[in-house]
Structures are given as structure tokens and as C-alpha cells.
Amino acid sequence: MPDETKYPSRELRDPAELRALAHPVRLRILEALAIRGQATATQLAEWVDESPANCSWHLRQLARYGYIVEAGGGRGRQRPWKIVPRGHRWGERAEPAASALALAEDAAAELVVDLEYAAQRDWLTRRRGEPETWRQGAFLTQNVAFLTAAELAELAEVINAAVVAHPERLGDPATRPPDARPIRLVAWGFPSRDPTQGSRDPNRGSAG
Q1: Are 79 and 42 in contact (CB under 8 A)?
Q2: Which residues, given as ranges, of the chain have pLDDT below 50?
Q3: How far is CA 155 from CA 52, 91, 102, 152, 182, in A?
Q4: Nearest partner of 106 among 187, 19, 189, 24, judged by Cα
Q5: What is the pLDDT of residue 96?
Q6: Which of 12, 56, 78, 155: disulfide with 74, CB 3.0–4.6 Å?
């Protein structure tokens, strides 16, 4: 389990923080820094297929809200940046649906889901060409379980601890085993509608 004192997670409660995260280019930049390690705006421009000027602007926005920091050395677009290896949480507290925070939370969540769905579809199209050991190790699991709210929260803690088992390897290739590859780990758990009831709200009683 990761050391929370060294790699603390952060709950995002500021709409501006979430809007800074919820941008396709910025997510690609964060992913590139996590996989490749520290990099300059010029290097990132090649990796994410954007101009150095655009990458530089997005880097400043990410740095403003603490997602990345300067790695030291260089000037201007030749300054290297590195990711801050910690998890981010949002949407855990009740918010009015039309509030700025709720809208930012929804936008960030939808973007992340779309990103991961596209990555899963990409894996399905290319998995036959992967080595057998990686095909066997990859997994997609789906199930329905009957849990209490407390049990669901406990399960989330267990999954989160497993997903972030090696945060020190993010952004620092020197800490990784020689045969390590970037692995996308996605999990969700939420109350499901009863498919036999259509779209009716299960928390509302019947009329009459």
C-alpha cells in the first residue's frame, strides 16, 4: 500500500482545479509525463502532437493547480516538468446539480470515462498481436454484487490501494522493473438500476 505521507491523494473541491484537469490535451500531457518521465514543452509537443507554445500554456495551467512541478534546469520552453505522483478524487460530496463544482465534476468524470473507454477499445483491436504473457495477464471483469453503502466504500478502499500500489514509478522510469509496461487500471462501482424496472427511480414508491 502506498505511503500516504509521501504520496497523498487530494480531493478536488475547487471548480477551477477540476476545469484545469478536464482538458484532453492536459490529460495527454499528464499521461506522457507519467510514462516518459520529466520533459520540456518541446519534447511534449512531439509526444502529444501539439505545438510547443500550446504545450507550454497547458503546462503552466497544470502547474498552477499542483498537478506538475518544475524539475529544475532550463529556461522557457526548455524547462523540464515532472508529474506530482498522487491520486485525485472528486464527486464524493453532495452538491447542487447546477453548481459550478458539480458541473466541473461531471465534465471531468465524463472526460476520464471517455478516455478510458477509447483505450479499452484500442486494446481489444490490438490484443491479438501482443505476447501471450501480456494477453493472459490483461483482464476485463464484470459482475453485479449486492452491497451496503459501507461495504461499497470498503471495496473502493481496497481497489484504490491496489491500483496505486507503486506511485513512485509514475514519472520516474529509473524506479521501474526492466519488463514493466504502463498498465491502465480502471474500476468503478455504483448503484445499478433494476433492468426489469426500466428507468423508474428505485428509491421512489409507486403511485396510488
Answers
A1: no
A2: 1-2, 205-208
A3: 42, 17, 24, 5, 24
A4: 19
A5: 87
A6: 78
